[in-house]
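Lab meeting, item 3. Inverse folding demo.
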């Protein structure tokens, strides 16, 4: 399960960047 955390964090970061994008 722990190895899934990095993927979740990356997805969350990408979602944030996408939200900031015009």
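The presenter then showed the designed sequence:
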């Amino acid at each position: 399960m722990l190895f899934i955390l990095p993927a979740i964090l990356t997805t969350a970061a990408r979602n944030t960047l996408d939200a900031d994008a015009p």
